[in-house]
Amino acid sequence: RKPSILLLDEATSALDAETEASIVDCLHALAKKLHMTIISVTHRLSTTRSADSILVMQSGRVVDQGTHEELLGRGLLAELADMPIVASTSNSSFASSSIPCGSQDRRRHHADDEDPNARSTQRALELFTNALLAGSTPRQRRDSQSTAPYQATVDGANTTMKDTPAPNVSCGLLKMLDHWVWHYTVLLVHFGDYLVNSTAIAFLSADYTYVEWGATLRLLSMGCSGVYAIDVLLRMAGLRTRLCRSCASMSDVVALLCVGGALAARFVYADNVEEKRVVITEYLDKDQPLLPGETHVFPKYRSNQIEIYFAAAYCVVLAVRIVLKPMVRVYSKSLQPTSAADTLLISMDSLRSALRRIPNIAAASVEVMEHDLVIICGRTDGDMTNDELMVFLEKAVAHRPADMTASAFLSHLRDLDAQSALRVYGALDVVSSTLRHWSNQRVALASTVLIVLVHASITPMLAYFMGLLGDEAFPNRVNKIFKQGYRNGTMQTWVDTQVMAKNKFVFPNGTEGTFTYFVPASSLAVGVCGILLICVPFAIVDFLMGYFQSTMIANATLKVQGQLLKTILAQPTLFFSQRTEGDLNNLFQSDVARVNALWQAVFWNLMHPLIAIVAGFAFLIYFEPSVGMVSLGFSIMVVTSGPQGHASLKSKDFGSKNAYTSADFQNAIACQQVVRAYGIQSPVLTKFHATTTTLRKAQFLKDFWAGAVQIYVDSAMFFFVAVMTAGLALKVFRADITAGAFFSAVTLMSRISTPVTVLGGFMRVAIGNASSLQRLDEIVLCDKVRCRILMASKTLDRLSFQYDTSTAHFDLQQVSATFPLGHYVCIVGPSGCGKSTLLGCLMQFYEPSDGVIAVDDHNLHAYSKSSYMGQIAVVFQDGGILNGSILDNIRFGNALATDDECKHAAELAECGAFVHALKDGYDTIVGQHATANLSGGQTQRICLARALVRKPSILLLDEATSALDAETEASIVDCLHALAKK
């Protein structure tokens, strides 16, 4: 390139001393020969011996300057080992300063890390752990959508990691209750109690057989309820006042009270044969017209033996408690003292890659360390816990290069891929996120719900027609008699069929009677035609559901795509440094498509079956109360349990590896010229094959466990429906229910079990694509509240910022200031001292590394960026005049401003005098197609008016008057001072 200036960034730090010395001498000779300025950033003293001048920096400040000999003479040579160095091999002089950004605590920490006296293995491991867990800024995984665990706390994850316990809780007691042995033992007692009682309800009769087992079942439930009470009382003692802060915990207590109430009702209204009373509630032939002296002949009885219905309610509440117990456990564990390290999962692949990147590492050492890694973790790939990592590092440090300290060795491993094990999207997160994305389509959503309700009512209609066929149309009895005889003079054989219709009956005296209120042939016609005719509304409603579903998903996808790009472009610079290009491209290309498929699953496999289930269970409880309630409880329990958590983790792992593979592919395409020029297709393909092989295994595990969720629901519902059908068949045999009621109940259960199974399919699809939705939500969604209007002051409290998060250098550090409302405040300093960086933090272009920006003592981080920027106006050094009229340029500051408001802002900025002097006034065209020549001061006043029309609480000026002459600058400054007071 034959450059005038050559910049070297640690260019020789990885070389041996001899090679480094040779290159440094070559560079020094080139600088003299080619009249070239060479600026080298280095931390090694050996590269500075031939430098013409040296700048010594520490924590954003130049602490000394001179030649190698001058620094040696001042006794600073020993201190240079701990300081970043900027060396120059030309005769150029340096002048540099910055905002004092040095934090004594950070400098002390950095010095300890590099101090030779503190380089013991244990100390190095402690420093490594602190760097991995408590970095000053969050670092994004290169192959993942997830941030580091400490950022998950900032972003509002459900479970907050704590080093100290929450006040007013008993941590020891909660740890005992949340231990897997206790937790799953209590759940097993719940399930056993439910299974025994629900089976008894299915097979026993309310009027006759339940009384034989009632006492035993009550005693069993009472013993189990004692276990439930002990568990809840201990948890209340552990949570104390924190109990009331959790909806799940309070619901669990209420559910226990309902369990106790249902059990008490079973004792109070216990079945008793000696006190059995039977009353006639109605007659099955109530529609039969009676002649004088006639009575109804088919009464319907009801006894006072109603314990079975309280037992069914008891089962429903038990199912609710089974659903609530895991939620209560999650909340309880969040209050216990937990190290952040306990929630980390570190990628073993990233650890292997980091080991191979260590300079001068021997292949034999890498092989030994990989062998130790497999032995410690017990597996060859996947994620490892923090404890496993620490055990491995204690052994690995011994195999580091001989000339490398433990601290330097571990510093090469600080960028491992670590993710939180606490926060992964499950089915409930998918549903809530989907409804948020659909919330702007209320009319379409309401219409869809109405249509699905109509669709769900078709199943009860089918059950009604099935009951009509069973009770009225089908024959009461059919006799087929084999006969043989002469017909028409010939011997013939035939079958004589004798049908006794349902409207025929026999009186006690043996005479035959006929019901006239229904005709079997008519009932048959109504039943068959009804079943056929409901196909028409079924098809119409299906079409309408498809239309509204497509409309909602298309609009939601359009909104997400636009909002995704808008949100990404509005992010601070640090956002892009924490994410790879492949990760962001994968968001738009792959994740949006997967989310689109997920939303279709939410509609067809969640909304539709869920509403169908609610309507179906309502009718089932009406037809057969005890079986309906037990079925409802079982469905709730099955849908919300199973291997969903494990499937969610596998989905998240697949999302990470998929983004990593996409980045590898895009990198190979971007570098295709280099690949072809150097003929390295084979190693590139080999590396990519290894990556895709890892992805294949992750995809298999994702699909397998997602499928296991549906298999679990499908199998459980099939088994349950079979048991309930067998129980109903026995009830028909004992004449407890009619055949028509049996057909109706079985039809409803079969039709209900199908949507429940479909819900299992939703769980599979939701979990399989949840990671994509989570990746989008982490960027697009913002649940922060609006920033309050500035009333007193804006403050900076120990604000720190660094562009490069991989170094200890801070561009701003410990900056504190107060900007009162109505004041005109200036930030003054030489070029490069950090003024623009500070202004970028104030405008939220950069996310602070540490410290607080507050509005009226309220942390700005808690509020949405858009609401804060609505109070901000900025005037830059170059102004920024756009093509258009003066009035248009002013209105760019506030698109809703009227002409009068724009002109008023212009008067405040003292634009009126020169604007009125123009021929076209405010309609004068400015910019590249200007029809009038404006001075620099006039241009800046227009830009100031554009800022003022926003009516900002805070006006930021970035060197806004530096390019103006002294007189114009003084005039604008006086104007600003007056405006601040006004």
Description:
Helices cover 56% and strands 12% of the residues. The protein folds into 6 domains: 5-96, Rossmann fold; 121-148 and 341-420, no CATH class; 171-271 and 306-338, Four Helix Bundle (Hemerythrin (Met), subunit A) (Up-down Bundle); 427-455 and 540-780, ABC transporter type 1, transmembrane domain (ABC transporter transmembrane region fold, Up-down Bundle), CATH 1.20.1560; 475-522, no CATH class; 793-981, Rossmann fold (3-Layer(aba) Sandwich). Residues 78-119 and 134-164 have low confidence and may be disordered. It is an alpha+beta fold and 982 residues long. Strands 1-2-5-3-4 form a 5-stranded mixed beta sheet. A 4-stranded antiparallel beta sheet has the order 16-15-17-18, with helices on one face. The chain contains 33 helices and 22 strands. GO terms for molecular function: ABC-type transporter activity; ATP binding; ATP hydrolysis activity. Keywords: ATP-binding, Membrane, Nucleotide-binding, Transmembrane, Transmembrane helix. It comes from Aphanomyces astaci (Crayfish plague agent). Residues 91-120, 136-161 are annotated as: Disordered.
What is the correct CATH architecture of the largest domain?
A: Up-down Bundle
Query: Mind summarizing the main beta sheet?
Result: 5 strands, mixed
- Structural domain count: 6
Count of helical segments?
33
Q: Report the top-level CATH class of the largest domain.
A: Mainly Alpha
CATH topology of the largest domain: ABC transporter transmembrane region fold
The pLDDT mean sits at 74
Tally the beta strands.
22
Gross morphology = elongated
Approximately how much beta-strand content do the residues carry?
Answer: 5-15%
Class by SSE composition: alpha+beta
Radius of gyration: 39 Å
- Residue share in helices? 55-70%
CATH homologous superfamily heading of the largest domain:
ABC transporter type 1, transmembrane domain
> Which spans of ≥5 residues are poorly predicted at pLDDT below 50?
78-119, 134-164
Strands in their spatial order, largest beta sheet: 1-2-5-3-4
Distance between the termini: 56 Å
